[in-house]
Structures are given as C-alpha cells and as structure tokens.
Write a structure and sequence with these properties.
Oligomer: single chain
Strand content: under 5%
Shape: elongated
Structural class: mainly alpha
Order of helices and strands: HHHHHHH
Largest sheet: none
Number of helices: 7
C-alpha cells in the first residue's frame, strides 16, 4: 500500500489482490474493468485513497467507511478483507474500534438539530390547533 495512491490506483491494486485470490476474474477483461470502475467510484465517494488508508490505526473505521459507501453488494466483504490486508500488520491486528469520524459526527449533530426543530414546529402547530379548537368550542357556549 502506498500513501500516494489516488482512489483509482488503490482500486487497481485491490483488484490485483482479488484476482490473485481467485475472487475476481481477470478475463474477459470487461469483468475486471467494470468491477474496478465500481470500486473506484465507491472509493472516490467515501474519500478513500492511499493517504486515507495510512491514517487508520485499526481496521474498524475502514470497514465502517466501506460499508457506508456501498449497498451490501456481495463483493463488499471481499473488498473489506483485502483492504484490511493492505494495512500494516500492527494495524490489521489492532482491536477494532467503531468510532464515528468527524464528518459522521457533524451529520449526526445536524440531524439531531433538524429533529429538534421539527419537534418544536409540531408542538407549536399542536398548540395552535388546540387554541383554535378552544376558540370554536368557547364560541358555541
């Protein structure tokens, strides 16, 4: 693994590993080409490249990142296993910790804020409706 690799170079090396393991057919060429293009697209979408790979101190965040960028395709576990195998041995064997990265933390905070605002609007609307019902009921007496 080279920290200078971009997403496409990382996907290329990953596919080389999958071919060597017999988990990806090299021929016909379009099979490998299509898979590599898909993996590159996923890696670009999640910001995974050689530099990002070099930041991991355990396999947990890498696994979470890959799963976040995919939809449970059958090849995801093979890709994750091969990526983990590309990490330094001490990182591969480190205890998995599944913590959120900063982007995920920010997304969670934004979602919580949005939910709080929605609850406030719903409460305000409910109060208005109760007041309107009270006015109508009060006018009937």
């Amino acid at each position: 693994m080279d920290a200078s690799w971009n997403s496409d170079q990382l996907a290329n090396e990953l596919c080389n590993i999958l071919v060597k393991k017999g988990q990806l057919k090299e021929k016909p060429a379009f099979i490998r080409g299509d898979r590599q293009a898909k993996i590159t697209q996923v890696f670009e979408g999640i910001g995974l490249d050689g530099a990002k790979m070099a930041t991991f101190d355990n396999p947990g965040p890498l696994e979470m990142l890959v799963r976040k960028g995919t939809n449970g395709e059958t090849w995801v576990q093979q890709v994750t296993d091969a990526l983990i195998g590309m990490l330094p041995e001490d990182v591969q064997k480190a205890k998995k910790t599944m913590t959120m990265d900063e982007a995920s933390k920010q997304e969670l905070l934004a979602a919580q804020e949005k939910s709080a605002q929605r609850r406030e609007r719903l409460a305000e609307n409910e109060e208005k409706e109760q007041a309107e019902r009270g006015d109508r009921e009060g006018g009937k007496s």
